Each structure stands twice: as structure tokens, then as C-alpha cells.
Sequence to fold (763 residues):
Amino acid sequence: MEKEFVTLSQGSGGSEMQELISRFAFSKAAQNAGWKNCDSDSATLDIGDGRSIVFTTDSFIVDPIFFPGGDIGHIAMCGTINDLSVMGARPLGISLGIVIEEGFSISELDRIISSIDKVSKSTGIPVVTGDTKVMQKGKLDKILINTSGVGIIDNDILLARKISVGDKIIISGGLGEHAVALLSKRFDYTTDILSDSKPVIEEMDAIRDKVKIAKDPTRGGIASILNELCEKHGVGMLLYEEKIPAKQEVRKVVEMLGINLYELACEGRIICIVSPKDAQSVEEILKKFNKDASIIGEITEGSKVIIETFLGKRILSMPAGTIVPRIC
Amino acid sequence: MCYAIPAKILKIEDDTAEVDYGGVFKKVNVSLIDEPRAGDYVLIHAGFAIEKLDRKSAQESLEIIRNDLSQFSEEDFELENYRDS
Amino acid sequence: MNKQDDIMDEKMLIAEHLKDIGDLAEKIGRNITIMEICGGHTRVIMEYGIREILPKNIRLISGPGCPVCVSSQHDIDCMIELASKGIPVATYGDMMRVPGSRYSLSDINSRFGNVHEIYSTTEVLKLKRQFDNIVFFGVGFETTAPMTAFLLENGIAVYSVHKLVPPALIALTAADDVHIDGFIDPGHVSTIIGSKVYKEIRIPQAIAGFNPERILRAIRVLLELILENKDKVINAYPEAVNEEGNRTAQKLLDKHFHVADSEWRGLGILPMSGLEVNDDRLNAKILYKDIVDSVPIPKKSGCRCGDVLKGTIEPIECPLYRKVCTPENPQGACMVSEEGSCAISYHYGK
Fold:
């Protein structure tokens, strides 16, 4: 039933959000102007000489703003850098739009800016422009950050290639660590798990030549990303459940809260589709960065994502309903 | 809503226990448990411990189930002698 | 014993159970139907594709094991109406998106911000300090009712739609339209109520736990009982269930609730099958009688949750399933609750 107001689940990255976005209807005009991949992490524009501009944006409303392993500033930078990175692009510059609630602690603001600065320095990607606004107390929940990023890429390494049946699916590390770190405050538990939030530039540099498609599974987790890929490319997938990596503590939290591991957000992971001949070497390369990197499945005929357990099979659907609000 | 998973009690203060699920630590309410003690394993549902887990007697019962159901004593169950099939 | 050993043991046990199940199914010969009545069991079964690996003559169906789903539409409408009047309310997550005639609790919260989703009722104690007139929606079977009793013990008002499992089992054994050869009894409900409660129900039963090994263990035990035509209850989950159950929890339930007739979606009004709050001053149905009385009896819809809950049809046989009724646009509780048969079927791909 269509409602006359926006609901929380429409921001969750699942199918309701897709529905909400479909109201915006901007992609036609964008495509007419020559932009491509408007429904991907980053949109691209061919500028001649065999090169394209890559452009992306993301807004961050994570709650709590400081969590084990990171903060809103850190994920605001990494999120946008990674969106460009997984397209195979080298990010050139980031814009930083911040809206702050009146009364927000200056020392906390300093911490957030310092996080942003750290990421910028460690990756060599500058914040080149920005905007700052303050809203009256009570009209905004603490802080909201938007980052946009622009990069440039050679068209022949643009990672938006066709995938084929038999291609392998690889994840660069354990699932759900960002979500579990974040939820610890909301559900009042403690673990050693830190958010996996990090730039994935180095990994992408190492594997860029060998992968067909790369994505970062944030909101909605791999359930969201893999279902989107199936729909976009008209393929199915088979995942081997026993090969899907997740730390013990993450699995315990998943059990304790009754949530779905595959719908949990990561902020520093890559999921990539690789031809069978390159799969082994990509897995080896990624294992150097994180020992849990693993080939977790393959592309098949059909249209669904099927999980093979040690007993029987089941389908992994596109997430629906409020998965976890304000995860990023 | 049926989720209940085991955890080990680390320490207790009044009706609240700090438990370890296995690297995940949380405070839960133990008012539904008789004489909970640090070191006990309990089953936890929605933030409340609902049962102490007794590995030894569970193992014994499991052996019976594995091997020979007829070992369950007749008094344990009201035997209904044969239904019409 | 280390973790690796545990996993290997579990796989070996599963292999043994499957072999025994195969042998027993062959000896039984005829087609039989086993019903599980616990959303948690439905989940594990679907997660591991257990139905498909059982012998062909064993049909495993889901019964009314989802407490949100078996709450009557009228009760749900009443709870939503209370919230829509701006009364601060608290509820478990899977109640949030259950559809009322127009809105869900989640929708009410989008507009008014007065619906508090909680994970444990201990959080409601804190909420009470902020909102003195907060009402808790008590949904759940016997596993969850003690946590609501805890709130009543602390002077917090409750709208109770708690239900009891054994009366549902009795109603199902008497039903004409579904023939059941045995039940897989709920695990954690039994932790609270004890295994001896089931003895009066004249049908083979096995109490099961919540992983594939425990469920297959229970199925194996059940098939032995069915083969020998024995109306016994076997506790196949002794790790967490004993004969008496949790006496402390039972006493708390007796203190704060009395048993009353209750309306179940799909099963109608079952005598002595629900828990009603003892203290009128804490019973939201009485405190807000005017609001409750103003809620009309819901119109019939095409939703066939009731039949799904009885096990007479599979979700896929409901005309609304997937076509109109989806998790984004649920027509009935079975599609919303994480333990609902339709939601589980949908997510696990039927």
C-alpha cells in the first residue's frame, strides 16, 4: 500500500529503497547527456582520449557517531573513496558537506575532522571543497556528512564488464564486522570486533587487472549487492555457505540478535567477480591483506542467489524491511 | 522470538549477570533462575536467562535417545497403547 | 573437546540420523505428515533445506508457531489503535511492521515517534522512567510471557496477547482438514513449561532443539514412535528441557496472568489458550477500554494466513503470496514476522 509519508525501511538499502529512488527518475536525463552506470556505485562520463570521469556521492548518518574501530568521519571518507575505487578509478578529490546540530561538542567535531584528515593523508586523496552548515538544536540529530568524489579512469580498465556463467565470486574478508561493532552500543554488548571501515585502494590496485566487477557491500550486505548483480546481468549465483567467512564473535552476535549475517554492512570489504582462470590468484592476493579472503561461490544460469549449505539449499533474497537503521 | 542461546555466567550482582556468549559479553537478567552461580552455563532469551544448562545429564539423556528409546522408563510417560491408524 | 571436534561429531550424528530416518521412512511405507509448531524450527528447517533432504514419504509442514502471526487481526488493530492515539508503547521488533487495516506500528512511529522497539523487556524499565504511561505489547508464547510478567511485577501496563502452545496442539489433533501423524514440539517453550505437559495430547511428539542435528534427531525419534504407533512424548532436547520446566518462571506467570479463552488467527477462539493480565490497573485492555471497544471487527481479506498457520496450505498456495503480499507490502502477519511461514518461505526461496 502506498503511504503518504516516508518510512524508515525506505532508507535501508533494500528493495523499499529502490522503490523510493525510482520516484526520482533522473537517470534518463543523465543518460541523454552521455553519463553511464548511473545506477552503479559511481557514474561515468566518457571525456575522450579513451578516458572517463567517475563521479559518486554518499551521505552518512551513522548512529552512534563514534563506534569501535571508527567514526562518522572515517566512514564518510572511506565510503566515497571505495565507491570510486571499486570502479577501478583512482580518486582525485573529495568534497565534504557537513551539517551540524547547534550545541554539538567542539572536541567531538575535532575528532571527526581528524579522522577525515587521517584517511586523506594515508591515501593521498585531498578534500578539495566543501560546505558547512549549522542547524538549530533539536532540528538535526547531531551531525550529517555528505561526501562526493571524482576520479578518472582509462576506459579499458573500467570495471563494468560482462560476467559469465562459471565466473567466481570472491570476498576480501570476513562479513559483518562494521555492523557488529556498531550494534554493540545499541544492543549493549561488548566484543573485540572493530568496524572493518578502511580504504580499499591498495587491494583494488593489486587486483584491478584481474577482476571483471568489484563492489563494496555496505548497507544491505552481500544479500543486497549480489541480488542487484543478478538482476542487472541476468544471471544466477551459487554460494557455498561453508566458504563464507565471518569471525566467531560476529556469528555469535548474529545468533544472539537473530539477524541475517548476509544482510549486514561491511565498510572495508570488496566483493568481486572474477573469471575462473584468475580466481585462485585473486584470492591469494587478497589473502595478503586479510587472511579470511575467500572464493565463496560462482555465477550460474538462472536468476536467483542460491546458498548451498552442508545439508540442503536455500535462496538468499534481496533484503526487505528495516534491516538495521542508521548503519552508515 | 524463540531465539535462546547459551552463555557462561562470569559474575552476578543482584538479578543481573554478566555473561560470555563466546567473545561477546552482555548483561542479562537472571531472576528466572534458581541460585545462579558464576561458571554456570545458561540459556538466554530476549535478555533473560531461562534455564541452567547441565551438560552431564544432557549427555546421558542423549545417549539414550541415540541408542535405545525403550530405555526410557515406563513411568516417565503415560503409555497410550495403540492408536487407530 | 575443541570446536573442530564438535563440528565433526555434529556432522557424524547428522549422517547417522539421516540414515536412520531413511530406514524408518521405508519401514513406515505410507505417506506421513509431521508438523512443527515453532517459528524457530521453521527457520532452521528452511535455512538448511531440510524438507528437501527427507525421504519422499515424509511431509514436514509448519503450524501456528509464530506468535505474532497467530495474534488475531482484531488484537493487532487494537494495539495499533492505541499507538495511533499517541500513547507511548513498546514492542518487540517483529510486531513493528505487521499490517493493521491501514497502518503498522512502524508507520505510526514514522508519524508520531511514540513506538519503541525493544530487544529485551529490561529496556522497558528505562522507558518507564521517561514515559510513565508506557504500555508494553505482550506478544509471544510461554518462552516470552515470563519477560512480560517481569514488567507487570515492576508495575508496567501490558496489553497481553500471549498464547499457550498445548491448546493449539489439541485443536490441531482434532481438526478435520489437516491430518497430522506427529508433532515436533517447540524447544524453548518446553524449557519453560516442561515436557510432561504434552503427555495428555494423544499423538506422537518429540521436543526438538534449534540446529539441524537436534531437529533431525527429533524427526528420527518421532518416526520411531510413528512406526510403533506409540502416542508418546520424547524429550529430544534434554540439553535445555526437563520434565518440570522452569518453576520460577511458571510461578511468576501464575502470579500475574490467568488463563483465558483467546482468538487465534486460523484456529478461531481456543478455550483456555491465552494469558490475561490479573491486575486490572495494569491491564491495558481495561485501562483503555474505550479505545479498544472503538476498534471495529476487521473485514475479511484474501489473506489466507489462517490456513497457512493450520498447515492446510503452503504459503505458495495463498493467492496473494508474492503477487500482492511481499515483505515490502505484507497483507498478513505471516509475511511480516521473522518466524512467519510466508516470510520464511519468501526469503528462503519458495
